[in-house]
Write a structure and sequence with these properties.
The chain is an alpha+beta fold. The protein has 3 domains: about 5-50, no CATH class; about 60-230, Rossmann fold (3-Layer(aba) Sandwich); about 245-370, no CATH class. About 20% of the residues lie in helices and about 25% in strands. The protein has helices spanning about 45-50, 60-70, 90, 95-100, 120-135, 155-165, 180-190, 240-245, 300-305, 315-320; strands at about 75-85, 105-110, 140-145, 170-175, 210-215, 220, 255, 260-265, 270-275, 280-285, 290-295, 325-330, 340, 345-350, 355-365, 370. A 6-stranded mixed β-sheet has the order 3-2-1-4-6-5, sandwiched between helices. A 5-stranded antiparallel β-sheet has the order 7-10-14-13-16, with no helix packed on it. It is globular and about 65 Å long. The protein starts with about 45 loop residues before the first helix and ends with a strand. This is CP-type G domain-containing protein.
């Protein structure tokens, strides 16, 4: 039995990849000495996530994430970039192309199970292709999947087989987009290694590069998730995270609004219809986010009196932890169909092409933008 982990016999957590240590329980990679008797050793943080669904405040410096990504350009690699369809613009890795160099990229769009079953998937794929092109990302293929529902994986495996050759497979993505779930599926299909990565809905589950050997001598490399502060998933408390991130298919809510009306999305965001003809707006959000309609002239007082009580999530205790709101104004031109996207919270589809002047209020730092309609 090993009593400690010395520098010359460093081991890594089989769940998140961090280097294990037995000395300081408040630092990443801590494992109780008794746990070294196990054949598959996981750090205390992974143990708590797996057994108690408990997160940890341990994080890895953002600069370290970028250093790890910068190594890929010098490797013979097939890069799988996984993004969250629910938070597409919020989960794209900005500037990924400069990190990966000339290595081929497969863009995997996860959580398609959140959209209605009648969705035209060819249109979704074309939309993704156009949006990724605008981000400067060159992709060999775009594959739509649901890691939760195990949809689209046969197509993904075929695509990987087409482009992998003798390359290692690097899986990259922002936190909480389903990356480790996808890698676990790849392990089952490409390797006989009995290993499962730590999967959790909490951001930043994977703390270091995890190298999984394949049967042909190459590797699947799971990289740490990039933490983007403009996403609601990085701002809200643990108890509110489940409310803002939907796990079941979205049930779009349609509202007919006159100018001068406001929609509150819990106490997370506010949508003002400032000017335009009466028209409908469809809200794509988690069903646990309560939507409340009021007149624009009453919006400030309603928020002051009811935020965290009638307007939830978050509750009053967690509301104070969010940054103050900032206002974003959009003038939507006639003849265009647009969404107003709020990173990590969802989007509002403007159903008419009549044009409209709107404003969105969100906590400072949250990404808000207008885009061509997804659906």
């Amino acid at each position: 039995m090993k009593e400690s982990i010395g520098e010359q016999e460093a081991m890594n957590c089989s769940g998140c990849g961090i280097t294990l240590q037995t000395e300081q329980s408040d630092l990443p990679g801590y494992v109780p000495p008794k746990a070294l008797e196990q054949e598959q050793i996981i750090c205390q943080r992974c143990f708590r996530i797996k057994n108690y669904n408990e997160s940890s405040s341990v994080t890895v410096d953002q600069d370290e994430f970028l250093k790890l990504l910068s190594q890929i350009g010098n490797k013979n690699a097939l890069v799988i970039h996984i993004v969250d369809l629910f938070d597409f613009q919020g989960s794209m890795i900005s500037g990924l192309q400069r990190f990966v160099g000339n290595n081929p990229v497969i863009l995997v769009v996860n959580k398609i199970d959140l959209l209605p079953k009648v969705t035209n998937w060819n249109k979704i794929k074309n939309w993704v292709q156009q949006q990724s092109k605008e981000e400067g990302l060159k992709t060999e293929e775009i594959v739509l999947v649901s890691a939760k529902k195990n949809q689209g994986f046969e197509r993904l495996l075929e695509t990987i087989a087409t482009y992998r050759g003798d390359r290692d497979v690097y899986v990259v993505g922002a936190t909480n987009v389903g990356k480790s779930t996808l890698v676990n599926r790849l392990i089952r299909d490409y390797s006989d290694l009995e290993q499962e990565l730590t999967t959790s809905r909490y951001p930043g589950t994977t703390l270091d590069m995890v190298n999984i050997p394949l049967d042909d001598g190459r590797f699947i490399i799971d990289t740490p998730g990039i933490v983007y502060p403009w996403r609601f998933s990085e701002l809200v408390s643990r108890e509110d995270l489940g409310a803002t991130m939907p796990e079941n298919p979205l049930k779009p809510m349609v509202y007919q609004l006159n100018e001068g009306q406001t929609l509150f999305f819990g106490a997370m965001a506010r949508f003002d219809f400032l000017q335009g003809d009466r028209q409908s707006f469809t809200c794509f959000l988690s069903p646990q986010v309560v939507i409340h309609r009021t007149k624009l002239e009453r919006a400030d007082s309603l928020y002051a009196d009811h935020a965290g009580v009638m307007l939830t999530p978050p509750n009053q205790a967690n509301l104070a932890k969010l940054p103050e709101w900032t206002r974003h104004e959009f003038s939507l031109k006639k003849g265009t169909r647009s969404d107003v996207f709020i990173s990590g919270l969802g989007w509002i589809k403007i159903n008419s092409d009549q044009g409209a002047l709107i404003a969105v209020h969100v906590p400072r730092g949250v990404k808000v933008l207008s885009r061509p309609s997804l659906i």
